[in-house]
TrEMBL record:
It comes from the Bacteria. Residues 12-304 form the FAD/NAD(P)-binding domain. It comes from Streptomyces diastatochromogenes. Residues 344-446 form the Pyridine nucleotide-disulphide oxidoreductase dimerisation domain. Keywords: FAD, Flavoprotein, Oxidoreductase, Redox-active center. Its cofactor is FAD. Belongs to the class-III pyridine nucleotide-disulfide oxidoreductase family. InterPro entries: FAD-bd_OxRdtase, FAD/NAD-bd_sf, FAD/NAD-binding_dom, FAD/NAD-linked_Rdtase_dimer_sf, Pyr_nucl-diS_OxRdtase_dimer. GO terms for molecular function: oxidoreductase activity. It holds the Pfam family Pyr_redox_dim. This is Flavoprotein oxidoreductase.
Length: 464
């Protein structure tokens, strides 16, 4: 069957993807215009809508007791707001010239064409799963959706052995390693970088490395996985690199994601160097008046480097959705870009970064000074004060802040927000030294660690 135009003067907004960006866009568009003016049809190929992928490691690790706590809004709640959300329905083709999409029921196989006046592409990302022997064997998992998380938990419950190998040591790899330790597994992390946490410079990653080993996690750096070995039952039994084998009863891939843009590519929509859709400031797909895109399938402008970047994070996806929904609903909003802020943790070690790493600054041709300082989370004499390392990059000559990385215990991670605001405002490190931050001994030393780094960076820039 097919659906076509002629809807009594109503416009139809079609949304591909029922998670953060897609359903934020649908919800915001609905706030802007009622059902008598705007019909909203949304397609989601999975079992869940509006869920927190970021929470999956904490659910797997047991910090979040049940899956449903990660669902912000159920399909029924969306439908109660006059959004026609069709679950387990996959869009298989976008016909830009005909302003329609082909939808297929995942379980039934039934297909139909659905026309649109306005289209939102929020197809998200797909986990990178290397094309190698054994990558699809039972016991091998990725973690991108709630379905993935449930499959992993089921697998953990039925696995006799207690040896887990995590491939990759970025945010997901590190968080999954901790989750598996909580589940009572012996964990080995195989990482192709010099140190874990590639979003940090290696000197800061080394601090994370030490903390992971302190938890009993075996770190294998500078190692590329070549194949996964399986037993007679077909299940995974080991992870192999060029020169070693690591026994595994369970394997989790945490080597990042790529934008899910096969549909967009087939439709001839513009993609960037990282494979993500390219949009203007209003999140409209470049060159297409009535098509918007947001979330993990788009590239965003990095305000520090001035270049397009791929940054798949839920914070951006929700903001993209708000902007898209406002514009598709007849209002006006823009998304100016990002500075690259992210936080994570390994047990009680907090990890934070914003702006550019050394290699990012080199890549875009910026010359810079770096400083690294040791401080404490509270006044040194106040109970509970814990060590914190802050690394700061400042542009040579101008002193403009370029990036900050922080590794420490309680109170470390959210301090990066000071730097995120300073980067957005294009402040110099000298201007930062005068910031009027909140102070009392239970919260910080009289000179906050970020300001200590700014003072040291200022002195270094001046000395040049």
């Amino acid at each position: 069957m097919s659906m076509s135009g002629g809807r009594g003067g109503r416009e139809r907004l079609v949304v591909i993807g029922g998670d953060a960006a897609g359903m934020s866009a649908a919800s915001q568009a609905r706030r802007m215009r009622g059902p008598d003016e705007l019909e909203i049809v949304a397609f989601e190929r999975g079992h869940f809508s509006s869920f927190s992928a970021c929470g999956i490691p904490y659910w797997v690790g047991g910090d979040v007791p049940e899956r449903d706590r990660l669902i912000a809004r159920t399909p029924e709640e969306h439908r109660a707001r006059d959004i026609d959300l069709r679950m387990r329905t996959e869009v298989t083709e976008i016909d830009v010239a005909g302003a329609r999409v082909r939808a297929r029921g995942v379980d039934s196989g039934d297909e139909s064409w659905v026309s649109y006046d306005k289209l939102v592409i929020a197809t998200g990302a797909r986990p990178i799963r290397p094309d190698m022997p054994g990558a699809d064997a039972p016991g091998v998992h990725g973690v991108q959706t709630l379905d993935d998380g449930q499959a992993l938990l089921d697998s953990l419950a039925h696995t006799r052995g207690r040896r887990a190998v995590v491939v990759g040591a970025g945010y997901i790899g590190v968080e999954m390693a901790e989750a598996l330790i909580h589940r009572g597994f012996q964990v080995t992390v195989v990482n192709r970088g010099k140190e874990p946490m590639s979003p940090l410079d290696p000197d800061m990653g080394r601090l994370v490395h030490r903390a992971m080993e302190g938890l009993g996690i075996t770190m294998v750096n500078d190692a590329e996985v070549t194949k996964l070995l399986t037993g007679q039952d077909g299940r995974v039994r080991a992870v192999a690199t060029e020169d070693a084998e690591y026994p595994a009863d369970i394997v989790v891939f945490g080597i990042g994601v790529r934008p899910e843009t096969a549909l967009a590519r087939a439709a001839g929509l513009p993609l960037g160097a990282h494979g993500g859709l390219l949009t203007d400031l209003a999140m409209r797909v470049r060159g297409h008046e009535n098509i918007w895109a947001g979330g993990d399938c788009v590239e965003v402008l990095n305000l520090v480097s001035g270049q397009e970047q791929y940054v798949p994070l839920g914070t951006h996806a929700n903001k993209h959705g708000q902007v898209i929904g406002s514009n598709a609903g007849g209002g006006y909003a823009t998304f100016p870009g990002v500075v690259g802020t992210a936080v994570s943790k390994v047990c009680d070690l907090e990890i934070a970064r914003t702006g550019l790493r050394e290699k990012d600054a080199h890549r875009v041709g910026l010359q810079f000074e770096t400083v690294t300082i040791e401080s404490t989370s509270r006044a040194g004499y106040y109970p509970g004060a814990s060590p914190m390392t802050v690394k700061m990059l400042a542009e040579r000559r101008t002193g403009r802040l370029l990036g900050v990385q922080i590794v420490g215990r309680e109170g470390a991670a959210k301090r990066v927000d000071i730097a995120a605001v300073a980067l957005t405002a294009q402040m110099t490190v000298e201007q930062m030294t005068a910031l009027d931050l909140g102070y009392a001994p239970p919260f910080s030393p009289v000179w906050d660690p970020v300001l200590v780094a700014a003072r040291k960076a200022t002195a270094k820039v001046r000395a040049r």
